[in-house]
């Protein structure tokens, strides 16, 4: 009687045509869908999948499946968009992606407005300010056309999120050059203070140094000499913003109208003392003429004295 035998091959192997040998099965060649999105490599009795970056091997399906990186929220101050094997952070208008590709940094600057009156933005306090800097400090609105500032849900007043999610102190002295009129701006944690020179006092707004001293006011100034003194003692703004041409014991000449010094001393224009508050910046004009039409004088005694001086 002829004896026969049968080969039972291990998993991953199959009997050859002779029936006498077990040979390796090339799974990668048999099933082209193995390791989809990746690289299939045959091994004795099995195979391995090499998945590229951004993909992960899934044992149940034997394919490389895309990793949704957006689930881990990698984008700071931006929106995440997943793509095969990767992702991208999308920044809103006014922001730019940094070198890491994960943080949107605020870069767009616009007009910062101090007041919103009857739905209108007024008093431009700086022409080139980041929105977060504007709205977290002095501004009530930002941009052109302007939009009312919304409070930051994460940062307190004086702090802003320009880069990432960290609330950082805003240096108002750098963001708003000249914020302290006639004084020196000193940044503090979450705020700032205005330091005034000797003889001047900060006003109620905390942003303007005003001279409250009262001295002699003069109607003439020639060859460094003062003449025609007005009776009484007057503040420098009451003198120089009205009829005076020089002021004080040192006979200091009043700043020339139209100069920066005059604008600082008389921000409301001729005929108005500097109360130290912020106004809407619109001069008292009638029609389209460039001539000022003054309201009743805020210095009645000063003008009365002037008339009395002229009348002898």
Question: Can you describe this structure?
Answer:
- It is found in: Secreted, Extracellular space, Extracellular matrix.
- Its main location: secreted.
- This is Fibrillin 1.
- Pfam families: EGF_CA (PF07645), TB (PF00683).
- It comes from Hucho hucho.
- With 312 residues, this protein is mainly beta.
- Among the domains are: 13-66, Laminin; 69-106, Laminin (Ribbon); 110-175, TGF-beta binding (TB) domain (Extracellular Matrix Fibrillin, Alpha-Beta Complex), CATH 3.90.290; 213-265, TGF-beta binding (TB) domain (Extracellular Matrix Fibrillin, Alpha-Beta Complex).
- It is 11% helix and 35% strand.
- The protein is built from six helices and 24 strands.
- It has helices spanning 27-30, 131-135, 172-175, 236-240, 260-265, 300-310; strands at 13-15, 22-24, 39-43, 46-50, 55-58, 63-66, 79-83, 86-90, 95-97, 104-106, 109-117, 120-130, 141-142, 147-148, 159-160, 168-169, 184-188, 191-195, 200-202, 209-211, 214-222, 225-235, 246-247, 252-253.
- It has a four-stranded antiparallel β-sheet with strand order 12-11-13-14.
- A hairpin with a 4-residue loop joins β13 (141-142) and β14 (147-148).
- The chain is rod-shaped.
- Residues 276-312 have low confidence and may be disordered.
């Amino acid at each position: 009687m002829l004896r026969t035998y049968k080969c039972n091959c291990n998993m991953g192997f199959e009997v050859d045509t002779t029936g006498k040998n077990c040979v390796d099965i090339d799974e990668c060649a048999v099933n082209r869908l193995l390791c989809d999105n990746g690289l299939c490599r045959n091994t004795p009795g099995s195979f391995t999948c090499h998945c590229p970056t951004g993909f992960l091997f899934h044992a149940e399906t034997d394919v490389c499946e895309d990793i949704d990186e957006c689930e881990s929220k990698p984008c700071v101050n931006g929106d995440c968009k997943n793509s095969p094997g990767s992702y991208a952070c999308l920044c809103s208008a006014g922001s730019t992606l940094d070198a890491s590709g994960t943080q949107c940094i605020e870069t767009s600057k616009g007009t910062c407005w101090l007041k919103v009156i009857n739905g209108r933005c007024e008093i431009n306090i700086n022409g080139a300010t980041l929105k977060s800097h504007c709205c977290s400090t002095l501004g009530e609105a930002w941009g052109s056309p302007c939009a009312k500032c919304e409070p930051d849900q994460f940062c307190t007043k004086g702090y802003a999120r320009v880069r990432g999610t960290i609330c950082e102190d805003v240096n108002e002295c750098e963001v708003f050059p000249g914020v302290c009129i006639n004084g020196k701006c000193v940044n503090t944690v979450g705020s700032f203070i205005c330091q005034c020179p000797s003889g001047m006092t900060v006003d109620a707004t905390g942003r303007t140094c005003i001279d409250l001293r009262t001295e002699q006011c003069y109607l003439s100034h020639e060859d460094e000499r003062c003449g025609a003194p007005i009776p009484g003692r007057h503040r420098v703004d009451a003198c120089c913003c009205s009829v005076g041409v020089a002021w004080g014991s040192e006979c200091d000449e009043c700043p020339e109208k139209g100069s920066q010094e005059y604008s600082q001393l008389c921000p409301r224009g001729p005929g108005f003392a500097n109360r130290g508050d912020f106004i809407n910046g619109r001069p008292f004009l009638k029609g389209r003429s460039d001539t000022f039409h003054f309201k009743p004088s805020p210095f009645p005694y000063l003008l009365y004295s002037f008339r009395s001086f002229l009348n002898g």
